Amino acid sequence: MPADPQTPLSFTRLHLVRTAGGAEALRRGLAALSDADVQHLARSLEFQGVLEGAMPDLLSALRPRLRQVRPERVGSVERMCWRPLERFLTDQTEVVSGVPWIVPRRLLRPLWALVEAANADLVDQLRRRHLTACFDQDQLALDQVAHQITDLAAFILNNAINIPARLKLSAAETAVVRFMARVLKWHRLVMPNVRYFQQAQARQTDQVQALRLYSNWYSVFELLDTQFDLYVLHLFEMTPNPVDVIDAFPFYFDTMTEPSGLALQWLHHRLDNIAADTATLLARPPRIQPAEVLLDLSDRVFLLNRLATRLRRIPLFGPEGAGADGLSALLRGRLGFDSVERLGEALIDWLHDVLMGPADKRIRAINVLGPLAGIYPLLLLLIDTGERASRAHKLRIRLGDKAIDNIDRYLRSHEMAPQARHTTASNIAPVLEMCRAFGKAEAVTELERRLRR
Question: Which branch of life, at top level (predicted)?
């Protein structure tokens, strides 16, 4: 049975974990540890790793609990070496082409062997200094060791000859190693400013203002002109909404002339991921999906539209920009017209349920109609080619006519008390706004007048 997180340290539980025979016994033992047990065991295992020169396998098994408890870590010289990369490390083994900031942990070991072999005497000296500093709890000495080992790794990765051939790296893995070398080389300037923003983030609810006032970006821009995209990449990883970062530094994004660089690669990857998630939800038959899935779809479309709209305000992705065609092609290719059209037909069915459906269908339709009718015009904008004869334009006309016709026929065939009219007007208001966005403003105004009578 799992221990309460507040349970005091128990050496009995620790002994059971250390002596567990088999994966199942180890799993049960780890699940039973309290937070105090995890902190003690992690520190003990890390000291063992420092003394023996290699971290025990048990520490890897403990990692899921370490993410929850987040105790102070003893670490090792090797761990200190890669500390500037911690934000980008992942447990996945495959490298993603075109996404060099996703760094699989499996690459660290062969690269560490390369660093260690390049200057074994210095690494041994740093290990001894690290061990002494750990037992003395001398943080200043530990920081000095961290700086030296990171600088050594940066020098080796940036200057060693033919690393891809020596380690038999693929093209995607080579790009990741080059990114790692770049982060290590510039971390002395980038990281203090990143930490400065991280500490100040909680003081300012407006993320754009927080980025401008607390990120100390001006010193980075002056001293790190050609590497500013590396700094922006850190901020993208730390900030919930990438649009806030773009709004904070318009002078940087508005002067871009080529769709390249880390910042734009990150934005392209993020947009593609949101579009892929949206496409997955769109591909499911909407009429039989739970309301939670449909509401998640509306949230995804809102996020996708906000990011795409902000990107189109950057000259590079504007109507005349070099990246405009690629942005539009990505959205249309991911979302697909057929899935968008099917959702539009489902909206008309839900409108019918709101007006004349049985009670259970009416309640469900009311819950999903508002959010989905609100985002549907945005969804059509994302896949529209901008031509008057486009499929998206024809779909707007057809769905708008259907919705107006259904509401008109319902009002003609039903006599309603004033309260019922008010309720109906409230329930179908999102559909009326959708029709207004489709160019049916005059017909919508007339329907609203009849609902107010």
Answer: Bacteria
- For residues 355 and 412, membership in a common domain is answered with yes
Q: Which range marks the domain in which residue 140 is found?
A: 78-214
Residues in the chain: 453
Indicate if 373 and 404 belong to the same structural domain. Answer: yes
pLDDT tens digit string along 386-397?
777 788 889 999
Count of the separate structural domains present in the chain = 3
**Which pair of tokens denotes residue 35?**
């937070």
Instruction: Examine the domain organization and report whether 270 and 201 are in the same domain.
Output: no
Residue 176 sits in the same domain as residue 276: no
What's the pLDDT tens digit per position in 23-58? 888 888 878 888 888 878 877 777 777 666 677 778
Is 102 part of any domain?
Answer: yes
What are the backbone angles phi and psi of residue 173, rounded to the nearest 5°?
-65, -35
196 and 304 co-located in one domain: no
- On whether the CB atoms of residues 187 and 146 are closer than 8 A, the answer is no
Query: Mind listing the pLDDT tens digit for each residue in 291-341?
Result: 999 999 999 999 999 999 999 888 888 777 777 788 888 899 999 899 999
Residues 55 and 156 in one domain: no
| pTM for the predicted model, two decimal places | 0.77
116 and 96 part of one domain: yes
CA–chain centroid gap for 382, Å, is: 20
